[in-house]
Amino acid sequence: MKTNNFFSPINLFFLSIFLFIGFSTVFSDKGLQRTEIWKKILSTKISYDKEFKTTDRDQELINIKKRLVSKWLSKKYRVAESAVEKIVEISYEAAKKYDLDPHLILAIIAIESSFNPFAESGAGAQGLMQIMPKYHKDKLQRFEQADPALSYNINIMVGAQILKEYLDAHSSLNIALLRYVGVGANGKSSYPQKVFRLRSRISAITKNIQ
Hints:
By secondary structure, this protein is an all-alpha fold. It has a domain at 66-205: Lysozyme (Orthogonal Bundle). It has eleven helices and no strands. Helix 10 packs across helix 11. The protein is globular. It starts with 8 loop residues before the first helix and ends in a 5-residue tail after the last helix. Mean pLDDT is 84; it is low at 49-54.
């Protein structure tokens, strides 16, 4: 008797992509482009095997923390762990480059887009960290690809750069977050507190790793 393979892993993989992006866009040029990008994210799994063999204990602990954080975020936001691992990896790279807390970057991503790399707001904010291309053309136009803000690695790097510039300008993370979300340095918003709370939850996952 022939077995029905409709629910095979590969079929479910492509079905999830179509449902995620939406039938209204998947057959458009932009929809197909985003499908390919999302497939690339999902298929790129970070391999820690080689890194775990290092004698650098500090790096080994960092790798363990990345995996724990990825697993927790994957479950909480219902995103494939292979995709979250890559986002976590880039967030750590961006944090190192701009002297930021990687868990802060991940908290912003979670609040802004729930780890949807193609999230777009009515105001024009795009991607994981909801960057406003019209206000940050100078940072995005150096990249050759179309819609650079929707490229997950570019989005994270540019988002971290924007936050770092605000932090350097005001020497206050609270004000930097207010400016990041578009409220203004003297504005009132619960956004910074939301970011701080989620950062604390993410950091708590790895607090016993030492």
